[in-house]
Amino acid sequence: MLVALFSRLLNLNTGSIPLEDFFTELVAYLFSTDKEILYSWLKNLNLLDINIYLDAYVSTQREFEPLDDHRLASRPDILIELVDAKSRSIIFIESKIGSQEGYEQLSRYAEILHGISGFQHKFLLYITRDFDPKDKADIFKNISQSTVQFRQLRWHQFYRFLKSQADTMLVKEIVTFMDEYRMAHNNQFSSIDVIALANFTKSLKLMEETMWGEVSQRFEKVLGAIKQKSTALTQIQWHGRYLMTASMPSGRWWCGLGFILKTSHLTDYPIVRLVLEVDPNSPRRAEIIETMKDICEQYGWRGYNLDSSKDWAGIVRDKSLQDFLSEEDHVVAVKRFFLQALDELEKIKDQYSKLPWVAIQGNGESSDDTRVSSSNLV
Fold first, then answer.
1. Average pLDDT across the chain, whole number
2. Cα 223 from Cα 115, distance rounded (Å)
């Protein structure tokens, strides 16, 4: 009987292993232990015309030093080196499950691939769970006449490919894992999808009732600024969340309040949340992280990625929407939670007044790369 082993392993490591990294290791392990599946997948994609490979080497998270004009080092999720009788090929794979491309991430990878010698074929694959179109001209803007080939794919395509392969236990487990984390889109509306669509405007109205008005006024007073309401709708598309936000650029961190709609399982409830999150490249990151750890200890907030220097890290005060359903008036109950959380945040600001709390008005996203741990996502 299938037991969804990988999902259980991920849950055992809640808060320490980001979902994308975990899935990357699963796919790399599959390719490493079953080369025939790897070769079959590459042929299925029509990447290479060669039919016989002498060997393939698969690695993950290999780091490349930044080029002269790069702000950051580069670390593609999966690197594949192929050797055949006549040539060598190299493939960078960047995977996204719920997050977006980091700062000029694909263009950096393309430039690094362009500069690597000894390979006749070079490929950059960008595989996402969600729709995230990319412009090749932007990716190759700093490279003229590059031999690197870019392909954009979706994980549901890989899911369908795996379903056509030998029904081994490893393949079964990965397919089950992809099912659970919504990487198996079948391009058909399910009955649940239809119900969700039919009730979306009503649900949005209820969220708006809890957030905009007294709560948004209080949020702006505590933070000193608030982004326009339209940015909350944008976040539904890109991040699966409906939040009012304020950016504090001098510390490269931000605050958000609202609903986390994206869940790991179909039966999970959305989360009602107040969040503080800091950029991995913040000039005040060390100070902010230490403060966040103090807040978790003193106030009972929950932290994520606080010991990871390469990820967005933050703290949250949140509750499952399920916790409010026993209340007579759900809107009043959620508003009360938001206002209490903001009162607590105001005390925190007073207590840690030396932090860069100055927020600015304006539009735009809260962060340019939402690498969030799986525990924070639900």
1. 87
2. 46
CA distances from 174 to 14, 36, 107, 342 (A): 19, 16, 30, 41
Rounded-to-integer distance, Cα 295 and Cα 339, Å? 18
Is pLDDT at 365 greater than 70 in this prediction? Answer: no
Q: Is the dihedral of CA 41, 44, 47, 51 positive or negative?
A: positive
Query: DSSP state, 322?
Result: G
Return the pLDDT at 362: 63
Predicted local confidence at residue 364, as pLDDT: 42
- Please name which of 141, 103, 146, 98 lies closest in space to residue 124, comparing C-alpha atoms: 146
Could you tell me which residue, 194 or 325, shows the higher pLDDT?
325
Looking at residue 54, its pLDDT comes to 79
* Residue 198 main-chain phi, psi, to 5 deg: -65, -30
Beta bridge partners of 315: 276, 303
Q: Are 38 and 18 in contact (CB under 8 A)?
A: no
Among candidate residues 83, 105, 87, the one with its CA nearest the CA of residue 38: 83
Spatial neighbors of 374 by CB under 8 A, at least 6 apart, are: 10, 14, 17, 18, 19, 22, 264
Residue 183 has pLDDT above 60, yes or no: yes
HSE, CB side, 13 Å, CA atoms: give it for residue 375.
18
Closest CA to 155 of 173, 121, 133, 182: 182
Is 378:264 a contact under the CB 8 Å cutoff? yes
Q: Would you place residue 146 in the very low, low, confident or very high pLDDT band (cuts 50, 70, 90)?
A: confident
Q: Contact 141/107 with Cβ under 8 angstroms?
A: yes
What is d(CA 296, CA 290) in angstroms, rounded to the nearest whole number?
Answer: 10
